[in-house]
Please model this.
Amino acid sequence: LLAALLSHGQQLLQLRLDAQGWLWLVLGVGVSLASLVANGLGLAVVLRWLGLAPHWQALVRAYLATNSRKYWPGGIWHLAARVALLRSPEAPLHQPTTGAIALLAVLLDPLVAAISALALVPLGGWQGGLALICLLPLLLLLPQGLNPLLLRLERSKARHLKDAIGMDGADGTAAWSHLPRLSRYPWPLVGAQLGFVLLRFAGFACCVEAFDLAYGLGWGGWLAGFALAWTAGLVVPGAPGGIGVFEAVLLLRLGFALPEAPLLAIAISYRLVVTVADLLAALCAHWDQRLAASR
Model:
């Protein structure tokens, strides 16, 4: 990514947006904000699928309030905040849940989102067999694959989350061990996360339109490249919020078909758009919380 910035810095400075381009970026902020609401609803679907009774509006507000913490160093603080909230007396649920169920919900949400995003890659065509490879992770959501995968995720994340929340001793051991085993395929979760990822892509598409580059690649190709880069930014260890990972994978995947300087401009613009949306989401959640408290 740094090499691309150095190589095309002069070309980037020469790119200009007209009034319509700026309107596309503003629309991208709005669509990205809507995608965050959809992701909050997706977490509610996860909790409902696990047999809990979420308070939908309060849960979405809590999700938006914690989402900006993904930019904090470590990349786990948004997850830790959600686990702590779901276990607390103030949980946006009919009644608070256990640490194990809270951890399961928080781990399932991004896992299903990543696999659902990869399932969109085939919409870009065969791509030398990549389309088939990206469908294979759907098999991991079968109970035979999902339970061992969640167990591995628990072992890798639970200790860091316990430290972040401040749990220790016997309480921590009892609450965080023995994740409940799942026996069904999570179709409702996949549907909810597909809607979220498509809204996320719609925000990215606004950035593509802002630079008038939609003609360079069919929308199926744009969606495939975005889905792959977005998934990499979600799961590959890197800067908080996937900063740098998404942009680098997008350049590597689509740079062969498009001019690199405009593509880099789109990636940077999208990063700014989603960051503004994250900040607006946190502000809206805080404002809504104050309104609810004053009633």
Q: What stands out?
A: Confidence is low (pLDDT under 50) at residues 168-175. Residues 260-294 form the longest helix (35 residues).
